[in-house]
Design the sequence.
């Protein structure tokens, strides 16, 4: 489960045990599962190291695609032939879900979902995120500075009714 040196995974603001993320696929997703065998995690981390585009770059690209939108979730996917980030943004009552190529920064796939189609928990978490007054790219920047690593994914959830941000970092 734990990656041995020289790689170290640092998880900030997350309670292990799977409580922190919404299960609604339209809002959050993560391709890096801590239940996976160590060699699969190592391979995902190696592929992440090859990415030309950072998490913050992917967020910026997605937010520029939908002016005024704010990122609510981002995750790296190194399992496919093409390394990508899945970025979700919210503007008004819509969730934009896009796939950003981690080498070129091009958006290779996108879709839109109405917030009204999400489950009650996801809608509640989105309302809490909106009220928090901090953007996901700011949360990533803080985590990278204090965690001394590069973000692989970022999102938010709730724990005992309180909004928490989740950032997974890779540190070498």
Sequence:
């Amino acid at each position: 489960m734990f990656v041995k040196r020289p790689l170290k995974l640092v998880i900030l603001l997350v309670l292990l045990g799977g409580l922190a993320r919404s299960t609604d696929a339209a809002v959050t997703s993560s391709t890096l599962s801590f239940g996976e065998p160590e060699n699969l995690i190592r391979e995902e981390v190696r592929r992440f190291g090859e990415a030309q585009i950072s998490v913050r770059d992917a967020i910026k690209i997605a937010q520029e695609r939908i002016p005024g939108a704010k990122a609510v979730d981002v995750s790296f996917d190194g399992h496919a032939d093409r390394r990508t980030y899945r970025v979700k943004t919210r503007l008004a009552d819509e969730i934009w879900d896009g796939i950003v190529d981690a080498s070129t920064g091009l958006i290779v796939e996108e879709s839109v979902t109405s917030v009204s189609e999400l489950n009650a928990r996801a809608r509640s978490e989105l309302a809490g995120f909106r009220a928090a007054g901090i953007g996901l790219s700011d949360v990533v920047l803080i985590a990278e500075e204090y965690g001394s690593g590069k973000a692989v994914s970022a999102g938010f959830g709730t724990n005992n009714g309180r909004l928490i941000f989740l950032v997974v970092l890779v540190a070498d």
User: Anything to note?
Assistant: The chain is about 30% helix and 35% strand. Confidence is low (pLDDT under 50) at residues 1-32. The first strand starts at residue 8 and ends at 12.
